[in-house]
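Fig. S4 source data, part A: sequence.
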Amino acid sequence: MSGAVAAAIAGALLVSSASAATGADASTPDALDVRIAKAMAADDTAGETARTANEPSASESSDGPTQDAQIIGGSETTIGSAPWMAQLWYYDPTLDLGFFCGGTVVAPTKILTAAHCVDKNNYDWASYGAIVTGTNQLPTAVLDDDGNYVSTDYHGGTATALSRQWNHSSYDEDTIDNDIAVLTLATPVKATPIKMTTSGDTASYAAGTTAKVYGWGRTSSTTDDVSQTLKTATLPVVSDTNCANVWPDYFIKGHMVCAGKPSGGTDATTTTTCNGDSGGPLVVNNKVIGVVSWGVTDCVWEGVYPVFAKVSKYVGVTYPRIDDSDISRDGKADVFLRNKETGTGYVRASKGSSLGDRASLNSRGSWKGYNLVQQTDLNRDGHQDFVLRRSSDGDVFWRRYVPSSNTWTTTQIFDNWKTRTRILTPGDVTGDALPDLLSVDSAGALWIYPGKGNGTFSTRVKVGTGWNTYNAVLGHGDFTGDGKADLIARTKTGSNVYLYKGAGKAGTSAFAARVKVRSDWSAYNTLITPGDVSGDGRADLLARTPAGTLYLYKGTGKATSEIFSTRVSVGTSYAQYDLLG
């Protein structure tokens, strides 16, 4: 079984007779220490993700070769070789339920893992979970004889709390289908992220492609012991045909992928993932192409392969969860508003199909004196930032939250952009997993400013000319469901709306040829794209009439005239605002 939990984490928990440290608050580092120690001592399983063969799985005989502690058939590796690896620890004291999974840092506050590890219907990760990054070793915890917490050594790693969880809305615990999830950390980690593969990637899934898997899972089919040190194994990608032949009743083509050589029936003749590796990455060319999902009980049943969630299938719905920083931090994009009389900045938090009551944002600084406000997260710290342009001189500023001081700071990022007709923050346009900024100059040229992830930018790259034919160029996120940021533009003549599908590249190939998706949208004086307002993983659009009615157009993920669902009114009082974003 390449599934979930490291049962009986032998050697990971040291026992002493020291007195316990108790009473830590749930938000303190000490509470995370206790949570992780309790999870290490538990022997529960996250989901049931094994397929059981007709007979007990084969195991190594007592006189067979002795296996070292490792992913079965793999070898030790360092955190320097896989800096994006994460340990997922879960312990719910109300149920005395604890388990372990692997995961991958795909952004400073985002962990990609398996849905059976997250399972929002059964597990509350914000209350009972913790993530450890920055180390190739499992923690060493000390409990006293009564099971009370004493201490934890993270071996150079860092424990981090979580703020929320998401798993695929169609995850099926019976078929283990759509086994993909994202956890959001309460604070960013220093671990270097790794990118997910793209929706159009086929080369990585070609039969025989060399892939690598990583994890701390079980080290043998005959014991529940997991590895204290991070392991890796090289697995060739298996064709869908071969995988389906082995798993005719379980393999779902397009949603799953197999990797490895057929198990040999013993530890000595098998290289595979096992219990405790769940949620970890399958990597090709430094991109995650799979997430450890399921396998056979005890991992080495002769002739079978481990099965992974196919990331190219899910990057479209997963990417918005990576790039989902929003003002209220609940995973649904919110609307920024500035009152044209008072200059007060407000937010109306999304409720999915409607907007909540407005709340003042003036504690984050003054909103007067600016003629543009865009939402973004330039440093990928999970806190929503703002890009603002000052009316007097066109200087552009980055306003961001500083968690260490619990304050907001405003930094200039561009000088004299008074003549720029459009400034937009669509997310990652270039395909490097870092947010970019785009602008249209007075001559109608569209430029990409590739973000460095810290509020600074690389040398600008020209996309093309003719963009002054539009009276709106906007975008935030993925409208087409392929995991790449797109643009929406409305013509000055005819008020027709076009989609520019993102290609995940810079330069003239950054966007595909435009596709007309709406005719005559002259009834609207303002269009905004704050992101995924509905929370369904698709970018949405809002449009305001001169009378002040604001409509929500939910994205469908289709790159056609059906790109938006039927509009829904979210209010009639929006004429009072001169800036929306």
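Fig. S4 source data, part B ends here. The longest strand covers residues 97-107.
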